[in-house]
Every structure is written in structure tokens, then in C-alpha cells.
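Sequence in, structure out. Go.
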Amino acid sequence: MSKITIILLATLFVNVCFGQTSNKIDSTIQREVASFRIKGTLLTNKDSLFKVLKMKVIPLYSCTNSRIYFNLGHTYISLYPSNFDTVGHKLLFEDDKKQKLVSIDNIKIWGTNGEIPKRKLDSIGLVRFSHSCIRFPKLAFEGIYEPYDCTNKPVYKRSRDGGYYEDMSIALNSPFYRAFQSNDGRRIYICLLNGKDKDKYEVIWIISNGRYLTRLIDIVD
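Output:
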């Protein structure tokens, strides 16, 4: 990749991403993120960059309103959204008329369009090789609201004992939930497109060398 292209990727990354610990993001991660993020479509060579880097798609196999599940080989990812309840939370509005919500529990909120959110993300579970559990700190989910409802209805099969189980053998396709893995397997990216009305955003969680690194948030026009 030419030096000019690398500079362009770095410039785009700084200008439109909101990171928690951006100082930890090296040039390799910048290039990989630019190959799949929505804002990366500004680059005419996004698809070719994805192929050059040999990024791997982690398929989505289950998508319900309580769990989103990805799997590739020995990598298992589960996201757990739920309904938001105002009980026990401090809501801060822009003025006394309470027409625009600006924060919850003194934390900036994303995707609510100034309204009280209906949905939130509770946690992410990531297990590799059935024994290595990657922990996400509480701040990884702070302010993340209004994940999209899944449009894919689960398919159930009858088990030998007469019961039913969800068939997760067929990969699903959703523009709202995506996950990727670097060619060397050292980095995993979990991507969500969330938001209400015009207040849409993409959040990308970055896992590097078996540890949660940071999250990035892009405002989507």
C-alpha cells in the first residue's frame, strides 16, 4: 500500500472516530478498521483493501431480541441487548421542558435522538477455544443505546427427545450486526449499526491479542 493511502486512512480515522483509548490504536488496526467500517466507504479501494489484508468475516448465526450470536471456528461471540428501564437511572435533559435527553447517569448517550431510549446493550460474551473468555469492562457498553431489532426469525428443529432447538447451522445476513477477524487471528472486531431516526451511529469494539482494547464510534449520516 502506498504511503499516500496510509496517510489518508490515518486522517479519516482521526477525523470521524470517537475512541476510548485511541492512543492504543496502531497503523495495522487503522488499516483493518478502514477496510470494513461504514465510513470506510469513502475510500474507493475499501473492498480491495479488505482482500489485501485477508480479513475474515465471522458469520452471524442467530439474531433475536435477546441474543446475537456469531461463530467462526473456535471463536464464539454473543451480544445481549435488552429493554431499557428508567428506574434507578439519572436522566439529564437539555432544559426544564425535558424535550431533549442529553445523558444518562452522567454519561453521553448515543442513538436516542434526544428521547428516552427503549433498548440498550447489556454485555458481550467472547470465548475462544472453549476456555479463553475475553472480559469487557463496563465502560465498553456505556452510552450504547437503540440497537436494531433483529428481522431474522429463528428456525427451530425437532430434537431426538421430542423437544425443539434453534438451528444455527445457516449463516444470516444483517447490515446491523457484523464481526471480523484479522488474517493472523490476533484481532477481532465486533460492529453494530445502532440509532433512532437521524441519530445513527456505528460502534466497533476492538479485541487484540486476547484482550479488549477499545471501542470506536462513528456518526453515520
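Check: Residues 1-17 have pLDDT under 50 and may be disordered. The helical segments are 3-16, 27-34, 46-52.
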